[in-house]
Sequence to fold (1420 residues):
Amino acid sequence: MGVQKLQVGMAGLGRVGKLHAINFLQKTPRAELVAAFTPDQNEIAWGRVNLEPHGVTLYTDYDEMLKHPGLQAVAIGTATSVHAEEAIKAIEKDLHVLCEKPLSVDVEVCRSVLEAAKKKPHLKVMCGFSRRFDESYRDAFAKTEQGLIGRPSIIRSQTADKFDPSGFYVEYAAWSGGVFVDMSVHDIDLTLWFFGDDSIPKSISAHGITAVQPELKKHKDYDNAVGIVEFQNGKIAYYYCTRMMAHGQEDTTEIIGTEGKLTVNGNPQKNFVNYYHSGGITREVPPNFIGRFGPAFTNEANEFTAACLDNTPLPMKLSNAVKAVEIGSYLQEALRSGKQIHFDEIGRRIEESKL
Amino acid sequence: MGVQKLQVGMAGLGRVGKLHAINFLQKTPRAELVAAFTPDQNEIAWGRVNLEPHGVTLYTDYDEMLKHPGLQAVAIGTATSVHAEEAIKAIEKDLHVLCEKPLSVDVEVCRSVLEAAKKKPHLKVMCGFSRRFDESYRDAFAKTEQGLIGRPSIIRSQTADKFDPSGFYVEYAAWSGGVFVDMSVHDIDLTLWFFGDDSIPKSISAHGITAVQPELKKHKDYDNAVGIVEFQNGKIAYYYCTRMMAHGQEDTTEIIGTEGKLTVNGNPQKNFVNYYHSGGITREVPPNFIGRFGPAFTNEANEFTAACLDNTPLPMKLSNAVKAVEIGSYLQEALRSGKQIHFDEIGRRIEESKL
Amino acid sequence: MGVQKLQVGMAGLGRVGKLHAINFLQKTPRAELVAAFTPDQNEIAWGRVNLEPHGVTLYTDYDEMLKHPGLQAVAIGTATSVHAEEAIKAIEKDLHVLCEKPLSVDVEVCRSVLEAAKKKPHLKVMCGFSRRFDESYRDAFAKTEQGLIGRPSIIRSQTADKFDPSGFYVEYAAWSGGVFVDMSVHDIDLTLWFFGDDSIPKSISAHGITAVQPELKKHKDYDNAVGIVEFQNGKIAYYYCTRMMAHGQEDTTEIIGTEGKLTVNGNPQKNFVNYYHSGGITREVPPNFIGRFGPAFTNEANEFTAACLDNTPLPMKLSNAVKAVEIGSYLQEALRSGKQIHFDEIGRRIEESKL
Amino acid sequence: MGVQKLQVGMAGLGRVGKLHAINFLQKTPRAELVAAFTPDQNEIAWGRVNLEPHGVTLYTDYDEMLKHPGLQAVAIGTATSVHAEEAIKAIEKDLHVLCEKPLSVDVEVCRSVLEAAKKKPHLKVMCGFSRRFDESYRDAFAKTEQGLIGRPSIIRSQTADKFDPSGFYVEYAAWSGGVFVDMSVHDIDLTLWFFGDDSIPKSISAHGITAVQPELKKHKDYDNAVGIVEFQNGKIAYYYCTRMMAHGQEDTTEIIGTEGKLTVNGNPQKNFVNYYHSGGITREVPPNFIGRFGPAFTNEANEFTAACLDNTPLPMKLSNAVKAVEIGSYLQEALRSGKQIHFDEIGRRIEESKL
Fold:
């Protein structure tokens, strides 16, 4: 087989890292997973069974992996706190980068990745927002572009996780950046897609509660939050994020236009089965984001690979990934301060005293 | 109030009789329920509480009720076995008649009602098939008439009751005429509506089982049956009837045309509520035909009343009610005999030896 | 017929007034519509055809109608601006009152009705919020009471009207009190029902746009608005109101609890018909609130009547109707000012300078 | 990469052949597509672009392909008329076989493949019924096995294709075996799965029409047909097959048990998007079986590969594939003859004269 395949190294083999690794190993015909890094011994053990027999070299040192012979690209699925550093190192080694969202919970750190990438315009650097690769969101976007709903004016979007009773998310809140940065960043990214990259916030409000995990308060975080972003172009997005769903993952989006409306996942369902019983009619729901967006991650791996090999544009801009974190951070601030935040027409924050 | 109101007497105060009585008493502004007959003492007791205080005279003798001063119309909701006799008596007394389906399980007896009605063309005599008065079926019919689905060619229709563990339906089978006459007669009536009154059967097949009530076999009846009626005009209707549903009433119809399809009640639901829980998403289903067709019975009472008072045409022909029983009886025969039944172009049965 | 019927007079015969009049005339067996008032000649003409023949006396002077012999109750469906005055006059005449929402767009005026009613505790005075009488909302409430969703914590509720291109709503905005008072007052009332009457706001935010009717700005109103109310008891309600829907009325509510979720009207539909065609599968949606809530208005008339005749408690408190307008007014203020509003633990507003 | 991969040759590169080829080439990590055969020059041209660059050798002679060095398995997706011959040749060459359904439209020919396979028990010979590999059907089967619906008693299943105006299916009918053999064979296979392999027919009826393609009559075929199969074990399956759908592929199955019901694809949909517009709410439907069952074909390729490499049992028996054609042929005969067909308790046909 004389066809060139992109030589990929995977950083991180946690839940989402495993997903990426398997995608590059088995479901991305034009790529070859050649290396994987993780500092975690349990994850190394998983790699011994699932990756090594297929010719993947395992590393416990990220810098070592970057030296893997012939390596062309790195996929980063480690903890958020090291995303930026790893991305910058890879860029400096002249490697393409596919980084899990967010680049960082700190806007300045996000910008440093953007700066590093700008210096190497021949590299493909993408922060993967999986919903951009989902068939349904793409269909909704195509219909919007065709003008089916007139001018998109209101977006309602939510990221709603099934409740995890393990307490994991309480500790996670210490460094997650807060629910709007960690969860709603997807919904904000969708907003920039449907409303336009050039959308500038005008004002931001947010409110939150701790309904099932009061311990979150120690990290100034919430398990349910609602936020509103009003844009300068006369559009509004409003978001709900929660980790309390009993039934499963329910990430839903409505795009409301002047002449129609599109919903994505208004009726969550795991598959095409309905069960009729004495209590009524029941359908199941995917338990997590992989159940809902699994195929989107596969698309992402394939499209990133194609862009690297063919030197074609990436399907999404890195700068949007920074902007999404920025808006998420403002929402988080509004959530904590109990005050609305205002911006001028070019997006500069207006001090409260000037209002 | 100088407005004339139709003076109505109700025969029978069982489940469907009570429904009609309350409709004429409270939900049919142009009618006045003045009398009610039942031979059953429990039903009389119900009438004492619910009808007498509103000025309704109770009778335990049908002939006596027919003599009620000023009576103009009778609604018949007694046992099927006396429908025809009571209808004919009322017609002979020059009273309008709204009779529950079927007129009789015996085609000849049905025809005798038709004959009696033909002699008094000024009277309104209707056999009430509730689905004809249902908003959804009417919408589907209007869309069909508008040509939205091209030429209707295939109908799938089912009458599916929630399982009744009381054993009632075993005894009932002794005189119900069998499941196709008792249940599918609704689906057959719909077929005549959507395919045209002039539809003539070409061949009929049917199969049945007793899945939950084997005692039905002693009455040569079944708790689940499937039948097919092919018509001379190149159309086919197929029916499923069951008394075994765990979840509730599920009467569903598909009308498949050369250019589209309409479904009625493809997604049964009791109301607009969905309950999301750890097992998925559940909606409830109406437990019986009243939950599904209650408002249709009210429409029926009002439209029958209007036709009587204004001397306008009834919304459905009595002859169709006879034809529906006739086709139901052929299905029942095919079910029992295990043989297909054939008809010539004008609907005369072809003897097997002539095939 | 010796049964006592409540003697009802109707004030106003506009769209909702006609609906109430027909309900009391034809669908409320224990009530009798005896009088109707309207200053509008077109509405009088409608009354001549539809009410007078049934014995209803028409009045063009409200005070004259109140003197109608034997009158026991008044239903008020006139313009909002006169609701309160008419309600108080009726109370003073010792008449029961069913008043359309809102009592007034002015909180103080609302309170004056409450005061008048308190002086006559034997009278039934109700401000009709139709959703409280809807079978689906009641089912959702019953399920919530049964504990099916744990502790209700988040409510999302929207009032979404089909776009009316006539320009009517632009003029209407001059005196409607704004979209949150006029439309979301239903959603706020539902919130008080599901979260408890004693729920006290903690903070309020709101944002709005004029997407299709920029002329609304002259009345400082919006055609799309989103608002959040955070309550002292650790619960949040968020609302969307719009007059821009292409497809019809879409009033949807989600009640999210710690152990489950209930949706009401998550899948809007006019009836049980689905149309399958070359573009997909389509179902229709009710064009307006009457298509969605018609039966609820009938329930309302019947339950109000029963409470008056039997001296039983009304199904909803008048004080809630005042509270709903109060919260709506705060939302409207937040919408216009661009500032979050805060309250202390007993609901007193906290001045901005004190934050 | 030291992992052994199954060396696969593809026979036929038509619509379904291309699908299999791409699956084995790109989506079956443990298999390697090494060869492909087609006598059709257009298909060879497609192979030159899509397969050859990936190292796949193209053949225009089936026997030559069987000699491809190292070949271990053949996937057959040619015209039905040569399926059996090609399967037998491959078996004789000691190659595993995955054959598209049906093995043949002639029951005797099907049996000859079964005989050939029996002689080589070390080979994996499977006739691929894609629905057995569909996640939703598998979920329904698992729920049935768990006893959720009690004893499965009635199956309704349909294969419904979008109308193809090209006239292709008229010519195809000359050798397709008829609609029940060509289309319903999937539904019959599902029946054997859910009712049990040992289900023996008791009686069979069928009726058909030509609603949109009257030319089908010259091949004694139909564009819409309904059939019923009653089994000796007191169960009934009924089938609808059509090539007339306006909206797309709609393959639906209901499994009705004594205590509940399962539906698969009761609500067809292409993705998670709903479009709200002035005519209502619309969702799209997959245009063909690939849109509905694409991932099932991928599962099929992977599971066949695993069985070959690991010498584990195939997920379905070859004998069922024969039995499904047999029942389909009886349905087709009943359709043409207008007579019910009967069987004794061990499945031997009962002559009409003996009934």
Notes: The interface with chain A takes residues 245-248, 250, 268-270, 275-285 of chain B (CB under 8 Å). Chain B has a mean pLDDT of 96. The domain at 132-293+324-350 of chain B is CATH 3.30.360.10 (Dihydrodipicolinate Reductase; domain 2).
